[in-house]
Amino acid sequence: MLKIDRLELGPVQTNCYIISGEDKQCIIFDPGEEAGKIQEVLKRKQLTPLAILLTHAHFDHIGAVDELRDIYKIPVYLHHKERDFLGRPNLNGSGKYAALPDYRVADADEWISDEQTLEIGPFQMELFHTPGHSPGSVSFYFAKDRFAIVGDTLFSGSIGRTDLTEGSESVLLKSIRDSLLTLPEETFLFPGHGPETTPGQERQHNPFLRI
After folding, report:
1. Using the 8-state DSSP alphabet, how is residue 13 labeled?
2. What superfamily in CATH does domain 3-209 come from?
3. Which residues does the chain have with pLDDT short of 50?
4. Per-residue pLDDT tens digits for 161-179
5. Which positions ≥6 away from 10 have C-beta within 8 Å?
6. Angle at 154 between CA 57 and CA 110, to 5 degrees
7. CA 63 from chain center: how many Å?
8. Are 56 and 152 a contacting pair, CB within 8 Å?
9. Angle formed by the axes of helices 65-72 and 35-44, nearest 10°
10. What is the distance between the alpha carbons of residues 48 and 52, in angstroms, rounded to a whole number?
């Protein structure tokens, strides 16, 4: 059974997830900032990272990417529709806030283009393209372990913001209904901010999904 470590990192407390197996290999989702804290967890738990996977490329999800990639010599995965976001503050959102530095990250090593089953070492996951919050937002579903990493697509009692570059509320709601709410009701959904939820809970209580 896979283990999930969640770290809240950076200026807006973005959830970074470290998914590990019994063999002590792991994959890192959305290392938004504070690479040192991620390294501490990996060292303490004696984990070997195989890859960095990004649900999308907004600044608060990418801040520690280059440092971790350089240290561990591992590939970064991102949807191709956000190819330009990594190096352009006006697209990744950091340019929107005067209090933030401009975030610029090197190109991904692997570009996701379609919904598919992705295998990295012992990890197997289904990829759902879930745009709306951003054009290349992706959710990663681990069917055997009954959980999904969903980025800023869906939150407990809320949905992702749609006022950033290429955001669309109608597209976002379609992504949620067509991909995330079709999962088994007890599936744990781990978002980019805040606590986990389930499709069953969101169908019942999320005010954005009652229309």
Report:
1. T
2. Ribonuclease Z/Hydroxyacylglutathione hydrolase-like (3.60.15.10)
3. none
4. 999 999 999 999 999 999 9
5. 32, 33, 34, 60, 63
6. 30
7. 13
8. yes
9. 40
10. 12
CA–CA separation, 197 vs 41, rounded Å?
Answer: 24
- Alpha carbons 1 and 8: distance in angstroms, whole number: 23
> Which residue in the block uniquely carries the two structure tokens 């976002």?
172
CB atoms within 10 A of CB 24: 11
CB 210 within 8 A of CB 176: no
Q: What token pair was written down for 33?
A: 């900032």
Sequence spans of domains, the chain: 3-209
Q: Please state, in angstroms and rounded to a whole number, the distance separating the CA atoms of residues 132 and 134.
A: 5
Residue in the structure block whose two tokens are 């010599």 = 73
3 state SS of 117: strand
Look up residue 96 and give its two tokens: 């929107």
Note the pLDDT tens digit of each residue in 65-77: 999 999 999 999 9
- pLDDT of res. 99: 86
Give the residue among 47, 49, 79 at the shortest CA–CA distance from 64.
Answer: 49
Hey, what are 108's tokens? 């991904």
Q: Which residue has the tokens 């200026």?
A: 11
